[in-house]
Design brief:
The structure holds two protein chains of two kinds. Chain A is mainly α. Chain A is built from 13 helices and two strands, in the order ααααααββααααααα. In chain A, a hairpin with a 7-residue loop joins strand 1 and strand 2. Chain B is globular, with a radius of gyration of 25 Å. Chain B starts with 10 loop residues before the first strand and ends in an 8-residue tail after the last helix. Classes of the chains: A mainly alpha, B alpha/beta. Chains A and B meet through helix 8, helix 9 and helix 13 of A and helix 10 and helix 11 of B.
Chain lengths: 324, 506
């Protein structure tokens, strides 16, 4: 809970600051968009949190988003593939990607950074290959399907504002992830392994399976995110679609309290982390005196400050603990 | 040196106090070290030995008290200052860079230079050869430190201390990871240095060593000096009595056990440590089997292979008469084995988890409700285990890192007990823990054996091997070199086997 307070505090601060600096920020249209984007990023961030908790990293998320996000409309529109088949294929491909990463990392003992960096390059290359580097979209068809990402669920008694549909996906993903992490023995294994993989193995935990599981979860959420992103924008360019999403997702997870050294993290924290990043991006677009070109500089600086504060607080807490 | 009064202490401290919030680590401790003297400082864990050594070496300042060097009052505010005054601390965990050469390590941080920029390598070679000779190390200074066995690394560390002209060497558990032969070499160097006027302050849990080496013993208990023993008073009984403050009539509570049927057989088992040697032995129900050997004999690797941590290269393991393939620890656990590893901080425990979560880590699978945690059971189990093992902690929610070594070891052991293993493998179960906790672990081993559990324990402490075992397996260079039943146990016999000599003809 204490951990959550930190990220919630920063989130609230940036949120209020943006509201004060821009009168357009609190308009319902803008808030709906903000929530939609937060939800989409949040889904990716929850997935990568599992990998980070085991002490690993997944750099391929953006490319998986691209692979699935371009692949599904390509199958539907260009190949006239039936919808269930296309969706099933998306799930299978995401699963296979995660399984491949996990096997290479857990069994061949390759470094997560290297494996997923190669994934980052490969999946984007493959996508550009089979699409002929052409922009993919649903055109004017699949209106119903697109509702999954673009619809707003009206709230009772609130006029002109609805909960964007991706937010419902995020809630489902987050609740499942939370239950998995906190209430099942496997979640406990993941956290234990992240702290000390060797001791976990000596305790009879099949650590290699847990590593594989983490990468599979991460790729599956990336695939889900990819479909939703594609449905949302309806125009996915294989060359740029999903670029840097892995970095935003990792940043959100880290802001949310996942230590890159493994072993800690809460799902709520990760979601607030995603929210913070999207509010920041929104602020840069809305506030006139911040040139939008420096977006990355602002995001980078805020993440750095957040992590520094976190580390300092941890150190003070630990010192106090030890001196008792 | 003729102006030195040989009776004036080289180093003397008086009334040293050190408080940490909530704990008094040192309470008015005074001691002195004469020129060329070997002073052993002993005491249970938490008695204040480490704090005192850290103050002497300038690692941390004392709250109050005085320090005199050759009768002159001085300050020891930093390690650099202590080194300048000739006091060097040799850490339990050696501070050497494995990727650098011996000579480069000796001069690390104060390399002689040429033109103020380039390292003067010829001089390093020349000078380090001189210091290596002083500790009796015959090896070229160009050897990589990483390629040396641990005993030699320690000698390099001592050579490094001598190179800064240290006149007082403080050694913290120097033999904890040495083989008997390496330890003997170290003792020789210590004696030699002492004869040349270097003083040694020696901290050790191993009373046998202290008896052999020390000119004088200082005993600490609960942050106070409780006694001092002169050379002719140094014996096991006196030391233990001062350390624990009570008469230890029966340190080892060994009662002979009636061994039952064979529960585990290793048949020509080969491990990564010695791929061309194989081990065969059998364990029976309810016996305590000691496994002795010098460091590097392959004992730890044998236990790890039995437990599935490292793969067996060949041979087979039979448990309850069934051939059992143990490919990973979980296979071993399901077959009724448990291993308490030697390195409890890295392998035995997850230090940043709570006591409760460490204790339950092994039994989560058994107690699960369709994959979900059974928190009530977890709490209950941890409470029972903390009570059973008399773990000193503020509660089951305390972070394990904050416990003392002995209490951590109890957790590392306790996490297995709730699974009711039938064969318990213990690797150096009492290393680095205090006398009180040792006794508790011994009596726990006893009571487990009485319940029919088979205990196989590896130890480098001869007294423990002789005191606790129903039977001793002695390893030498990768194989079981001999076996001794309790009736035939003696230090000489065990040692002969461990050093690869056949038992004397009867």
């Amino acid at each position: 809970m204490k951990k959550l307070l930190g990220i919630f505090g920063i989130f609230l601060f940036v949120f209020v600051l943006t509201a004060l600096l821009s009168d357009r920020f609190l308009e319902s249209y803008n808030l709906e968009n903000l929530i939609r984007r937060t939800a989409l990023l949040g889904i990716l961030a929850v997935g990568v949190a599992f990998v980070i908790i085991t002490g690993g990293i997944d750099l391929s998320i953006g490319s998986v988003v691209c692979l699935v996000g371009c692949g599904v409309p390509w199958l539907l529109v260009k190949q006239s593939c039936p919808l269930p088949w296309a969706l099933a294929l998306a799930v299978i491909v995401s699963l296979a990607v995660g399984l491949l990463h996990g096997l290479l990392i857990a069994k061949l003992k390759l470094q997560p950074f290297v494996v997923t960096l190669c994934g980052l390059l490969m999946y984007r290359g493959i996508t550009r290959g089979f699409t002929g580097d052409q922009t993919q979209g649903f055109g004017t068809e699949y209106k119903g399907l697109r509702q999954l990402a673009t619809a707003e669920v009206p709230l009772p008694f609130v006029e002109g504002f609805g909960i964007p549909a991706p937010c419902l996906f995020l809630i489902v993903v987050a609740v499942l992830a939370s239950i998995f992490l906190n209430q099942t023995i496997y979640g406990r294994y993941l956290l234990a392994m992240g702290q000390n993989e060797e001791a976990a193995r000596y305790s009879g935990i099949r650590t290699d399976r847990m590593v594989i599981l983490a990468y599979v979860i991460c790729s599956l959420t990336a695939g889900l995110g990819g479909i939703l992103f594609a449905l949302d924008v309806n125009s996915a360019q294989p060359g740029s679609f999903g670029n840097f999403y892995e970095l935003h997702a990792i940043a959100a997870a880290v802001l949310g309290g996942c230590s890159l050294r493994g072993g800690s993290g809460t799902i709520m924290g990760v979601i607030f982390g995603a929210g913070l990043i999207q509010v920041l991006r929104n602020m840069i677009t809305l506030v006139d005196f911040i040139p939008s070109h420096i977006e990355y500089a602002v995001i980078g600086a805020v993440i750095l400050c957040g992590v520094m504060t976190d580390e300092t607080v941890k150190r003070i807490v630990r010192r106090r603990l030890f001196s008792k | 040196m003729s102006d030195d009064d040989p009776r004036r202490p080289w180093l003397e401290v008086r009334g040293i106090c050190k408080r940490f919030p909530g704990v008094t680590a040192l309470d008015g401790v005074g001691m002195h070290v004469n020129r060329g003297e070997v002073v052993a400082v002993i005491g249970e864990n938490g008695a204040g030995k480490s704090s005192l050594m850290k103050i002497l070496a300038g690692v941390q300042p004392a709250d109050s008290g005085q320090i005199f060097l050759e009768g002159r009052r001085c300050q020891l505010a930093s390690v650099e200052q202590a080194l300048r005054l000739g006091i060097a601390l040799i850490h339990q965990e050696l501070n050497l860079a494995d990727n650098l050469e011996v000579g480069a390590n000796i001069f690390l941080g104060r390399e002689p230079r040429r033109f103020g920029l380039l390292i003067d390598k010829p001089r390093i070679l020349r000078d380090s050869a001189r210091y290596l000779a002083r500790v009796g190390l015959k090896l070229p200074p160009t050897r990589l430190v990483g390629s040396l066995p641990i005993g030699r690394k320690q000698m390099v560390e001592i050579a490094k201390a001598l190179s800064v002209d240290a006149r007082i060497l403080i050694m913290d558990e120097p033999t904890s990871s040495l083989s008997q032969r390496e330890a003997d070499q170290l003792f020789e160097v210590i004696r030699d240095l002492s004869a040349k006027g270097v003083s040694i302050v020696y901290i050790s849990h191993r009373l046998g060593e202290v008896k052999e080496l020390a000119h004088r013993v200082v005993v600490l208990r609960d942050g106070k000096k409780v006694g001092e023993l002169r050379r002719d008073e140094i014996n096991h009984e006196n030391m233990v009595q001062l350390m624990v403050g009570r008469q230890v009539s029966q340190f080892y509570l060994h009662r002979p056990h009636e061994p039952g049927e064979v529960v585990l057989t290793a048949d020509n088992l080969r491990t990564l440590a010695y791929p061309h040697r194989s081990c065969s032995f059998a364990l029976r129900r309810g016996e305590i089997v000691g496994m002795f050997g010098l460091v590097g004999a392959g004992r730890t690797e044998l236990l790890q292979t039995l437990f599935g941590v490292t793969p067996a290269l060949g041979g087979s393991v039979w448990i309850d008469g069934r051939k059992t393939a143990v490919r990973s620890p979980i296979d071993a656990v399901l077959a009724g084995l448990a291993l308490v590893p030697e390195d409890r901080k890295q392998q035995g425990l997850i230090l940043d988890l709570t006591v409760r979560n460490n204790l339950s880590l092994t039994s989560l699978r058994r107690d699960q409700k369709m994959g979900f945690l059974n928190r009530a059971r977890e709490r209950e189990l941890a409470r029972d285990m903390v009570r059973l093992l008399k773990v000193k902690a503020t509660g089951e929610g305390q972070v394990t890192r904050l416990l003392s070594g002995g209490n951590q070891q109890k957790i590392a052991l306790g996490k297995w007990l709730s699974l009711h293993p039938r064969i318990l493998l213990l690797d150096e179960p009492t290393r680095g823990i205090d006398v009180g906790a040792k006794t508790e672990i011994y009596s726990l081993m006893e009571s487990l054996a009485e319940k029919g559990i088979t205990v196989l324990f590896v130890s480098s402490e001869m007294e423990e091997i002789l005191g606790m075992s129903d039977r001793v397996l002695v390893m030498h260079e990768g194989r079981i070199f001999g076996e001794l039943p309790r009736a035939e146990l003696s230090e000489q016999r065990v040692m002969r086997l461990a050093t690869g000599q056949l038992p004397e003809a009867a």
